[in-house]
Amino acid sequence: MKYTSTRSKIKPLDSAEAILQGLAEDGGLFVPEKIPKVTLEEIDALREKSYEERAEWLLGKYLTDYTEYELGECAELAYNWFDVPARIPVAILIQDPNNPVAPVGSMELWHGPTSAFKDVALQMLPHLMRIALKKVGETKEILILVATSGDTGKAALAGFADVPQTKIMVFYPEDGVSKIQRLQMVTQVGKNVNVTAVKGNFDDAQNGVKKIFNDEKIREELDKLNVKLSSANSINWGRLVPQITYYFSGYAELIKSKQIALGEKIIISVPTGNFGNILAAYYAIKMGLPVKKLICASNVNNVLTEFFATGTYNRNRKFFKTITPSMDILISSNLERLLYHESDGNYKLVNRYMTELNTLGKYKIDKKLKARLDKIFYAEYVTEDETREFIKRVYDSFGYLLDTHTAVSIAALSKYRGKTRDFTPILSASTASPYKFTSAVLTALGQSVEGVDDFAQLKMLNDLTNTKIPRNLAELSKAKILHEDVCEKEEMAQRVLQFAAEKI
Ligand SMILES: *Cc1c(COP(=O)(O)O)cnc(C)c1O
Questions:
Q1: Pocket test for ligand 1, best of 110, 114, 115, 118 (most atoms within 8 A of CB)
Q2: Integer Cα distance of 177 and 98 in angstroms
Q3: Which residues approach ligand 1 with their CB closer than 6 A?
Q4: pLDDT tens digit sequence for 443-453
Q5: Domain ranges across the chain
Q6: Which is it for strands 141-147 and 104-108: parallel, antiparallel or unpaired?
Q7: Residues 154-198: pLDDT tens digits?
Q8: β-bridge partners, 314
Q9: pTM of the predicted model, to two decimals?
Q10: Architecture of the domain made up of 134-235+480-501
Q11: Using CA positions, which residue lies closest to atom 11 of ligand 1?
């Protein structure tokens, strides 16, 4: 399997090269030249496999330059932290056989070290990178730079901690993250990690990191230290490919629990921001997973809902800060890959749309492409009130607790069922533990959190619902603080050079 760019014809790369490079030189994203196919027999065989074995199987379809042994090792190392044996279990929300409403499976992607779905990929990517370095004969150390508004930083730290030939450095805005988010980062263990607070807001931290990436001089300095900069952002193919596994895994779980028969079509619903998670579902469908519709669920930042309804992507709009912060996004970068595949690899067309997005902030896709997207996708958005209402409603009806992002997915589904009367069985991506967004969840359940400290809120939700506090959050108040560095935004580059020079 070779990889090409969404924006021009390039010399095809192996997956190891694409993963190390991250972004193509023309600014495009790496895509597989052909999407591999799987059979129903292969899907059926997944029922008896562990999650790690399912991951090894799926990765083997795309990362053909990795050996079976390497992929098996990556899967073991990536998922051994996940604190349930199934790794990614599927909870069935409607179980009454006399109830005519078809089942809803909630695929819990949040049993990893930071209690959110990004762990599934960020626990895997560092190992894929480490092996890729060996494959291409790269002897330099990779330094991963991250600016975070809270969650991605911790997920990346947890993934890269103590991975050989890598270092990771995370900058966060000193006053721009929650108490729990800060503690999660500053207690991170690992010889190769650095966490530094920046005096400023998230934009300051992000602009600082961008500047460092574009600074030739810093690159030269790092080169002398035998260090190469890299990022771990969600457009890297090595972050996308591990996500494809769980759609097959979730389907196999639905067969196993007799909710569906082999070959039966399902509906998949995904709470969407940067379009990575839902794009992984798209790849699964193209590979042969029996799916009738893919529901793209958004919050009031509904740029994607409008795009799927009208064919126009327009980022020139008001930006809202919501109780689903991981979906507060106006540019869904991974959409570019969908446009490429559904236009049969028309990179000239994709290039034109992306140039228009850059210069005008919008583009309109042609009718033929729009018609093809209509066959696969259904898009819906959900208001803040509806999100809270669904947390309460699902908890009251099924005793099942949703986080805010997952509630957007379930609410969008409910709207879909209401409009279409289509009661096909459902697999809904549950992207975060309710304990990750405790205050919004408690509020939705009718509790007042005014003046209640973050840790007291965890206890409060625990007392109220008798659900388990995830291990990483429960242990946080006792963890030792290891990183207390603070810097001015002008000092970021110097801090990077300092950390790069440190022997580990
Ligand atoms: C990142 C994230 C999303 C959005 O996923 P994308 O791949 O960016 O579309 C949804 N929910 C949670 C909890 C997330 O962390």
A1: 118
A2: 47
A3: 116-118, 151, 234, 271-278, 326-327, 405, 431-432
A4: 999 999 999 99
A5: 134-235+480-501
A6: unpaired
A7: 999 999 999 999 999 999 999 888 888 899 999 999 999 999 999
A8: 362
A9: 0.95
A10: 3-Layer(aba) Sandwich (3.40)
A11: 431
